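Exercise 7. Predict the joint structure of the components listed below.
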Amino acid sequence: MQLVIGNKNYSSWSFRPWIAMKALGIPFEEILIPFGTPLGNPDFKQRLAAFTPAGLVPVLIDGEVQVWETLAIMEYLAEKFPDKRLWPADRIARAQARAISSEMHAGFAALRGECPMNIRRPVRERALPEAARANVARVDAIWSDCRTRYGGPFLFGAFCAADAMYAPMVARLNTYGIEVGKAARAYMDAVTALPAWTEWRAGALAETWIVPEDEADWPTVLSA
Amino acid sequence: MKLVIGNKNYSSWSFRPWIGLKTAGIAFDEDVISLYVEGSREQILKHSPAGKVPILIDGDVRVWESLAILEYAAETFPGAGLWPADPAARAHARAVAAEMHAGFAALREECTMNFWRPPAKRALSAAAQANVARVQDIWTCARERYGAGGPFLFGRFSAADAMYAPVVQRFIAYDVGVSAPARAYMVSMTALPAWREWRRAALRETWVIPKFEYDWPQVPRLPAEAA
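Solution:
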């Protein structure tokens, strides 16, 4: 199985299935196609077209099967590796895990726009408009509710696909110094303590590619 | 089982699980909330902390987000065939469903779902036109690869069709030019009994949401009898 991803520093979508497979012990070969500049340039598109018609990373390739879209990849993995428990075993928890994963998949546009994932950016606070602050409040509420209900350390106890879906959000909230409640902070600490997190981060920090569209401080590029 | 939905005329998210469940023959009660009026947000929050419709309530299970509802229904009613049986087709169906769930922002913004709008062209931005092209590619590719067993994206009706149902209506309402295969697919969708049932109810609604009416303060409407 191969996972085609974009830059580790910036590609929040790529990070999701990657951390899910690493954290749950599903082996795969990684194929990284750098975004290049500007975003959506023909060279990137052409290289990616060999793997997917959708023109988006990530893509999971399993023999004849190509799956794109992070959520669809999670469902594919859940079916193929039932023992890896991509979703919680309990049906109520599983329904909730899918609901909040979908909410992440389609939502929080303001926050994502304001705070692009940028692993190498040193922690620096950023003032957020109202819509993004409302997103933060909702994310905080989701995490706190899950931690209270299922006891942690992850959203549904053990690490699952829902945690993978929110992993880039953990990175964003950290990078832009956004304040969250105690339960949410404890959750973020659990996620960043994962060996898979550390491995992805090291990969991101080793990258030298700059994508201006994802640098919130452009033309300044903050770097640790 | 109860599905909490918004206005049938406008709520594209609500339309998805509704037409998915109906067409798959899964029985449910519906609870329609008039959106964007005083008290509607509170009504929704009573059912779901996310504050959005649709919401499926099944005993002690609460699911929000159209895609999560379809997954829940697929799992709870495996005999309903909400996803294609073949694993490769199923993976493809989930990918295009997820692409719809998170994508096509320009098209959705410029062409809000509006059942009672008499079909009329609207100039689209380059981004929306790119969305239209991609949607047609998705439909054509799925039909060519997996559509042999019927008129829908993966032959038989599936959750992927449910996810794209509102786009079919957008293409109709804004008279978006599409290819012949895409047109044929749209005709199959609008012929579904569930489609007709939803449309009949939509055309009879009286709740008008100004921000979804492009000709506001005019509200051009097909007569209810048109359905």
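Discussion. The CA atoms of residues 38 and 114 of chain B lie 21 Å apart.
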